[in-house]
Amino acid sequence: MSRYVSKAIQGMAFFFAACAVPHAWAAPDAVAGKAKAQLCAACHGENGVSSIPDTPHLAAQPPLSIFYQLLQFRDQRRKGGGMEVIATTLTEQDMRDIAAHYATLPAPAPQAGGDAQKIARGQQIAQQQYCSSCHGAQLQGQKHVPRLSGQSHTYFVTQLRNLRSGARADMDGTMASAARSLTDEEIDAMAAYARSLP
Ligand code: HEC
Ligand code: HEC
């Protein structure tokens, strides 16, 4: 764990330094963000809960996580779902406002109806791998680290495989090292566990 955490801190320091463009912005405005997020509802759902399996829920995501992912898409460092085009139409103020809006919405309902044995196995692996040291005790996310609880199973599995293979480059390399040794079966079990959490 300490290995990940110290790498994470180093990586974050680098990332924040790289982003520290001298630039003034107004405080994030969740009300303005709600209006701006109309563009996003067709895919991410009216309340930030998507009904499309490969499209993430954004409700209750930490605002910094949404903001940094939008920057990654805008700068073409992450691609997928056409987001690399959509993000180029947003200003940084739009991104902060939209992120503030989604952060205020209620989290997606936990889907605990699945295979109880698989969920228990997913919980065990997540504990062994210290996923919560970055993603939070209930995998609810924090700072720039995304929320995983309640997330779509398909989205979780696809993204974690892409982070493992490097097809999705993460902002500081810590998630790629956390994913490197995971098997498909372990990823599937952890997705079931994450989806079951409130
Ligand atoms: C045409 C459908 C579509 C629209 C419209 C759309 N998105 Fe997306 N969005 C996606 C898909 C699909 C992904 C997953 C991309 C991937 O596979 O990497 C995604 C991913 C994201 C992510 C990454 C979330 C995470 O947990 O990493 C954010 C943030 C996001 N979208 C925000 C927005 C915002 C804000 C808007 C509106 C301005 C928007 N999206 C409009 C389909 C869409
Ligand atoms: C050192 C901190 C750290 C650890 C440990 C860690 N993660 Fe992550 N995780 C991150 C960060 C940061 C991101 C965002 C990556 C990016 O795009 O830059 C992320 C992204 C993800 C995503 C994509 C989510 C989304 O919304 O797109 C999944 C799934 C994920 N992590 C699962 C896990 C699992 C499962 C574990 C345990 C095996 C784990 N993580 C351990 C920091 C961590």
From TrEMBL:
Binds 2 heme c groups covalently per subunit. Heme c 2 binds at residues 131, 134-135, 175. Residues 1-26 form the signal peptide. Heme c 1 binds at residues 40, 43-44, 83. GO terms for molecular function: electron transfer activity; heme binding; iron ion binding. It comes from the Bacteria. Residues 6-106, 117-198 form the Cytochrome c domain. The keyword Signal applies. GO terms for cellular component: periplasmic space. Keywords: Electron transport, Heme, Iron, Metal-binding, Periplasm, Signal, Transport. It is found in: Periplasm. It holds the Pfam family Cytochrom_C. Its main location: periplasm. InterPro entries: Cyt_c-like_dom (IPR009056), Cyt_c-like_dom_sf (IPR036909), Cytochrome_c4-like (IPR024167), Cytochrome_c_Oxidase_Subunit (IPR050597). This is Cytochrome c domain-containing protein. It comes from Limnohabitans curvus.
